[in-house]
Amino acid sequence: MGIHIFDVDYTIIRKTTAHYFIPEALAAGVIKAWQLRSLAFAWLRYKMGWADQNFIAQSVRYLSGIDQKTLDSLAEAAFTKRMQAQVYTQARQLIENLQQNGEPVYLATSSLYPLIQPLERFLKVKDSLATVLEFADGKATGRLIDSAPFGCTKKTMVEAWLTSRNYKPSEVNFYSDSYTDMPLLQWCGHPVAVNPDSRLAREAARRAWTILHFSV
C-alpha cells in the first residue's frame, strides 16, 4: 500500500482548469478578453517546451480585487457546467478503487486552489497541494501565498509535504501527463505517465515507466 498523488490538468480532466473557468470569468466581467493575451503566449511557450516558471504568478495579477465568494461561485459554476463532464472516466474509477482499498489519494497541481475545490469534493479527495491566492479583506490581492507548485518547485513542495506526513519516496505513486513534472516523477518510487505529452512519453518509454491512457 502506498500514497497516490495525481496531477489534475490533462491527467484527471481533459483540459486545464483555466480552460473551464475563463468563460465564466469573462461572462461575469471579472477578467477582460485583452488580459488573456499573456496566457496565450505562456501556453505557446509551454507547448514548445519552454515553460515559464513564473507565468502563474504573473497571470493571477488580473484577479486582483475579485471577491473571494465571487471566485468560489464562478469556480463552482465552471465545474458544474463544464468541467465535471470532462473528468476522465478511468481516472475517476481508479481513484474510487484506490479509496475503497484504503489507499490515500491526493492532488498536486499548479491550478488555483479555488478551481480544484469542486473537483476535490466530486472525487472525495480530502487534501491537495495547489496554487494559493492571497486575499485581504475578502478580496484577491493579485499575489500568491508561497510559490506555485510547478516544475522543480512542485517537486520540492510535494517532497516537503510528504516528508511532514512521514511518507518515503518508495511509497509514492505519482500520476502526470506533463514533461514539467519530470523532477517529481523521477523522485517518486512509482511514476505513472497519463496521456503523456511527447517529451514525457519518450522518457517514460525509455525508463519503462507505467503509461496509462484515459478518456472521457
Protein architecture, described:
This protein has 216 residues and is of the alpha/beta class. It has one domain (3-212): HAD superfamily/HAD-like (Rossmann fold, 3-Layer(aba) Sandwich). 44% of the residues lie in helices and 19% in strands. The protein is built from 9 helices and 7 strands. It has helices spanning 17-28, 37-47, 55-59, 68-83, 89-100, 113-123, 152-163, 182-187, 198-207, and strands spanning 3-6, 105-112, 128-136, 139-145, 172-176, 190-194, 210-212. The protein has a 7-stranded mixed β-sheet with strand order 4-3-2-1-5-6-7. Strand 5 (172-176), helix 8 and strand 6 form a beta-alpha-beta unit. It starts with a strand and ends with a strand.
Summary of the model, kept short:
The protein is of the alpha/beta class and 216 residues long.
How would you describe this structure in keywords?
216 residues, alpha/beta, Rossmann fold, 7-stranded mixed sheet, 44% helix
List the helices and strands and how they pair.
Blueprint: E1 3-6, H1 17-28, H2 37-47, H3 55-59, H4 68-83, H5 89-100, E2 105-112, H6 113-123, E3 128-136, E4 139-145, H7 152-163, E5 172-176, H8 182-187, E6 190-194, H9 198-207, E7 210-212
Parallel strand pairs: 1-2, 1-5, 2-3, 5-6, 6-7
Antiparallel strand pairs: 3-4
Helix pairs in contact: 1-4, 4-6
- CATH architecture descriptor: 3-Layer(aba) Sandwich
Using the alpha-carbon principal axes, give the shape: globular
Report the CATH superfamily: HAD superfamily/HAD-like
Structural class: alpha/beta
Tally of distinct domains? 1
Average pLDDT works out at: 91
Major sheet: size, sense and barrel closure? 7 strands, mixed
